[in-house]
Records
---
Amino acid sequence: MAQQGIQLDREKLSCSICLDLLKDPVTIPCGHSYCMNCIESCWDEEAPKQTHSCPQCRQTFTPRPALVKNTLLADLHLPEFHLDLKLNCSRWSSS
Ligand SMILES: [Zn+2]
Ligand SMILES: [Zn+2]
């Protein structure tokens, strides 16, 4: 059910691998989200073991799940980035 709504807290928009804001966010089958690059390289390392696990909840996936870009999360970032941009711009122009 989609009754929980979208929480805009930074934790939800952060990648637990690089601890930065999600870049090209993808959501894996357990529901956790990572940067496309982070989870790809994480799973590349695990590839010889034939397991692909979630770094957060340790759920394992076999075969490797297809990564689908989470456009919802990607869209959610935009206001924050624009806000940062604006703040930076006004700081620069006033100095
Ligand atoms: Zn990341
Ligand atoms: Zn997980």
---
Amino acid sequence: MAPLCALWAVAACVSPTPPALPLPEAAPRALDQALEAVSPVDSVVVILRIGDGKVLASTHGAAAWTISEPPGSLLKPLIAIAALRAGAHPDREWTCTGRQAPREKLRCWHPRGHGKLDLLGALERSCNHYFYRMLETLPPDALARVLREAGLGAPTGIDAAAESPGVLHVDSRPVEGLASALGRTGEIRVTPLQAAVMAAWLATGGARVTPRFHAAGTEKRIAAQPGPLFSLVREGLRRAAGPKGTAAALGEAGFDAAGKTGTAGWVNGWKTHGWFAGYWPAGRPEIAISVFVRDGTGRRDAVPLAVRALEEYRRRRDSL
Ligand SMILES: [Zn+2]
């Protein structure tokens, strides 16, 4: 298959990463081993400490920063940020009628529709229709600007070799833009590490965290004082991990977490990859987490793995 990064820019295919560095610890890391023991082979779990960017877990070798895949609905919070900045009102409601909506070019995944939703409900339930409506209101390039700001389409700067920059080619037309944002056209691809950095960006209200294996001595405190716009989106992501949300299993397991699921189609849409990107605790975020499961879905596969990852992290946090 031709490299998809050619869709974006040829130069982006050559990652400007520094010379190869060894993985930081010669001995296998305990948290990585524990997570790999409960993970499918074709999956990746990344945990970043938000305060200093230290990579606390990264399973299955270098996969976290060398593979890139369509992110699916992980990008909906970023669509919300772009739309709110452009003047969208979070109380504005749209009615989702599901797959049967006669005039929709891009239908919702929910067969019968989500009904009437505001922004928080749309983030909680991951309604395609709502975000399509938001994209219709956006000026050209507004979404692409937010995606770049959140760290997509460029290397994160991790101190490891051969980092993929992912792919970022956003169509400014609403239908095509949502299709690319949902990963249906293969024009946006993110690495699991970028997904974790994106989650940290949301958690901190817009601070970009540079992931580091060798983080000792570089700790910097990032004030988790998001402005009203980020606070709103964070509330939606917290509800996504609540009883009615697509990541409800986190709340059911006792984690007051926040985040977004993603289920990205490939092979003409009849196979999917599952994602989760979020942070914990929701109120005072300490870590960002991303989970990718090949041939899976966000809710069924990635979220339960995120639960296991948080359990393993919590068990070891004092020794990390
Ligand atoms: Zn819907």
---
Amino acid sequence: MEDGMDTAKVMASRAPDGRGWGGDYWIENDGRCVGCRRETKIAIYGDGAVSADPRGVCGGRASYGLVAADHGATGPDVPLCFDCGNERERYEAALSVARRRWAVAS
Ligand SMILES: [Zn+2]
């Protein structure tokens, strides 16, 4: 996960004006999916808007993180890609990994 964030910073530094190989956006790594271990992606546009829409440039690797508060717990977001988030067995396996990282909110 740390490696992914470092890579993201490098990629961002190559496109400080918001213009990258896609034209008016660039792609950043947003973590490493706990399901398939691929790096999850977000697109950042020139106006600062952030998108993790799987119908867009990020495709199936769009960041689809598991958020502790959505599951009655506290802790860091756990990276998950859109593909894993939309396949029941992979989603449930990822959620069980995430729950081991989270504390149940009281
Ligand atoms: Zn995945």
